[in-house]
């Protein structure tokens, strides 16, 4: 009887886009499915799997009997850098090389299931990031259903879905680089369903800002959003009350849509506190505990927490300018400075004069447990790149105020376009 029950248990292969902001929400979704009785195989690319082995203990990545990790090659040269991979190269490589590797992995899992004596179920479905649509082809060729999971904002997704409309209307590519600064980006885009009627071209994800008609990322998103119509279902990390108009508009051209967000709260409310699932982490950088201990010694609502996410990069000049802005503000701050924050460098370095000027009111970290930081009573302001993950965390944390700093591509359209009626403050963060 036990063997039969195990065989009948659904088995989901889950594959996130290989970046921190996609891995984290996909892992939360995987934990939810596991609590609902699924076997889970969580598939990273080999580069990030090695990073997880360095940042987490190997025991945690062994998973649980019905929750396992696996890895496939992404087609890029091997590397052990503690840095986010080049987005354009990674996107093109996964799109063009990962299909046979994923199929091979699924077939291997099914072979293992056949000899496991019922301990492992055959793969019954695939859940793929909305930008890993080669998995749709793999699932179809293997006779499996595939749901796509959109990790960034619903309004960002809608913007990507209408990239082709920019081409059809002659708005893309830019005719000349002067259009980046001459007001052309203020062109009103009022024809995308459910989006604000004063939406501007500059408010769309920044891949539109090029004169190259063959831009890898622009065309990558056209390819991926078009392919999503072939999915069995689309899962979005939002909730109906926040994005009802957008969800209604999407339902006109997408498969059935399921909202599961905000995932960090959904997991908290559905995974037991003593569950071993909670010990399985997703951070690609090793978390430091010192910031939390430092926060314990700060007065309530006295600290500015600064974190520009996992992808945003800046020049060294920009880093120094920002650092001295923090120093001259006079505020107490906790600043998450990734080693790869400076473009082209593996180690962001601040001058000793900065340390001297902020002594006694600053804490620098390479990576910290962000959800715990945002929930800490000492944090009163959150200065962020406005990525969708951080917006969701902020919305449910007790942070008094937040401000937008340097942004990543996916965060740009979240301002003013994904808010309940009257929530105009969402727009103020970006304009």
UniProtKB/TrEMBL annotation:
PANTHER family: GLUCOSYL/GLUCURONOSYL TRANSFERASES, GLYCOSYLTRANSFERASE. Pfam families: UDPGT. Belongs to the UDP-glycosyltransferase family. It comes from Triticum aestivum (Wheat). GO terms for molecular function: quercetin 3-O-glucosyltransferase activity; quercetin 7-O-glucosyltransferase activity. This is Glycosyltransferase. GO terms for cellular component: cytoplasm. CDD domains: GT1_Gtf-like.
């Amino acid at each position: 009887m036990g063997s039969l029950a195990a065989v009948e248990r659904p088995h989901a292969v889950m594959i996130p886009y290989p970046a921190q902001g996609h891995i984290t929400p996909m892992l939360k979704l995987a934990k939810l499915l596991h609590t609902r009785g699924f076997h889970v195989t969580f598939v990273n690319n080999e580069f990030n799997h090695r990073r997880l082995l360095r940042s987490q203990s190997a025991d945690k990545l062994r998973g649980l009997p019905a929750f396992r990790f696996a890895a496939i090659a992404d087609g890029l040269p091997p590397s052990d850098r503690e840095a986010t991979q080049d987005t354009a190269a990674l996107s093109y490589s996964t799109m063009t090389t990962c299909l046979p590797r994923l199929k091979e992995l699924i077939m291997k899992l099914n072979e293992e299931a056949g000899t496991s004596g019922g301990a492992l179920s055959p793969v019954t479905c695939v859940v793929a990031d909305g930008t890993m649509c080669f998995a749709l082809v793999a699932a179809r060729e293997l006779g499996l259903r595939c749901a796509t999971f959109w990790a960034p904002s619903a309004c960002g997704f809608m913007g990507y879905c209408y990239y082709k409309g920019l081409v059809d209307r002659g708005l893309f590519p830019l005719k000349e680089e002067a259009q980046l600064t001459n007001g052309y980006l203020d062109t009103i885009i009022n024809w995308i369903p459910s989006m604000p009627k004063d939406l501007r071209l500059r408010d769309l994800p920044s891949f539109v800002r090029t004169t190259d008609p063959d831009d890898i990322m622009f065309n990558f998103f056209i390819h991926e959003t078009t392919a999503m119509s072939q999915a069995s279902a689309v899962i979005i990390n939002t909730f109906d009350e926040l994005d009802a108009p957008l969800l209604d508009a999407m339902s006109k051209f997408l498969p059935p849509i399921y909202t599961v967000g905000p995932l960090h709260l959904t997991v908290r409310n559905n995974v037991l506190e003593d569950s071993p699932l909670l010990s399985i982490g997703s951070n690609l950088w090793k978390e430091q505990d010192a910031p939390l201990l430092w926060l314990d010694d700060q007065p309530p609502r006295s600290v500015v927490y600064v974190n520009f996410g996992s992808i945003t990069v800046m020049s060294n000049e920009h880093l120094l300018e920002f650092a001295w802005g923090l120093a001259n503000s006079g505020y107490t701050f906790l600043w998450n400075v990734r080693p790869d924050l400076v473009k082209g460098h593996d180690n962001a370095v601040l001058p000793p004069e900065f340390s001297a000027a902020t002594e006694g009111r600053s804490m620098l970290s390479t990576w910290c447990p962000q959800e715990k930081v945002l929930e800490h009573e000492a944090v009163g302001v959150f200065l962020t790149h406005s990525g969708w993950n951080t917006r969701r965390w902020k919305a449910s944390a007790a942070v008094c105020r937040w401000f937008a700093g340097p942004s990543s591509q996916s965060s740009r359209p979240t301002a003013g376009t994904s808010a309940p009626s009257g929530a105009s403050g969402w727009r103020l963060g970006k304009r």
